[in-house]
TrEMBL record:
<keyword id="KW-1133">Transmembrane helix</keyword>
<feature type="transmembrane region" description="Helical">
    <location>
        <begin position="61"/>
        <end position="80"/>
    </location>
</feature>
<feature type="transmembrane region" description="Helical">
    <location>
        <begin position="86"/>
        <end position="107"/>
    </location>
</feature>
<feature type="transmembrane region" description="Helical">
    <location>
        <begin position="114"/>
        <end position="135"/>
    </location>
</feature>
<keyword id="KW-0472">Membrane</keyword>
<protein>
    <submittedName>
        <fullName>Uncharacterized protein</fullName>
    </submittedName>
</protein>
<feature type="transmembrane region" description="Helical">
    <location>
        <begin position="155"/>
        <end position="175"/>
    </location>
</feature>
<keyword id="KW-0812">Transmembrane</keyword>
<feature type="transmembrane region" description="Helical">
    <location>
        <begin position="187"/>
        <end position="207"/>
    </location>
</feature>
<feature type="transmembrane region" description="Helical">
    <location>
        <begin position="36"/>
        <end position="54"/>
    </location>
</feature>
Amino acid sequence: MWLLLRRAIDYLDTVPPFLLIILAITTLRWKRRDFILYYLCSQFLFNGYANWLNELKLDNLYAYSLNFSWSHYILSLYFFDLYKTASWKKLIVGAVALFQFVSVFSIEPATAQITFDSVSFGLISLLITLLSLYYYASQLSGQPRENILNVSDFWYVNGIFTYYASNFFIFLTFNTLISKQYADLAIIWRVHNIVFLVMCIYFFIGLQCRRSAGIFKS
């Protein structure tokens, strides 16, 4: 029973995004420039590839590194679209350019492999957490024109904030844990997957809302 549960947790970063994508397609909720759904596609493809490599007993850090790079890019587009402040847009664009530049030079020409860059992962997680906190602050500073619980962006940001804030220290220390061959590393990553599931639940609630009108779909 415990073995079956562990196997299920291992795929919490792949199955929930797939189900949300199917939900969006079948209910016609996929709209142009819906970056959260692009983000879910990235999670499903790269995490699914990483799980497949894991089944083959092969190194899958390369897949997770690509996933993080693409996820950062897509979420940057999301926050770029969400905010109207020029200074925040410059910060977002600058962070994307810097991270993509570092990612290129993290490839080792001799082995064509990418190591898990804990420092970059931690910094990007911190930046995304700050962008989420700015969204909360902007909502609290002004008089809301609609019930925030009926706004999809509120639930999307809740999911993003929960995932990146909760996993900040996992990302920041993961490379050290790998190098020291920490025995409970699989348990730590399962905790990550459980938090990932919580993010997907928030996304599911957000999909039930209209992003612009702020009312639940029937």
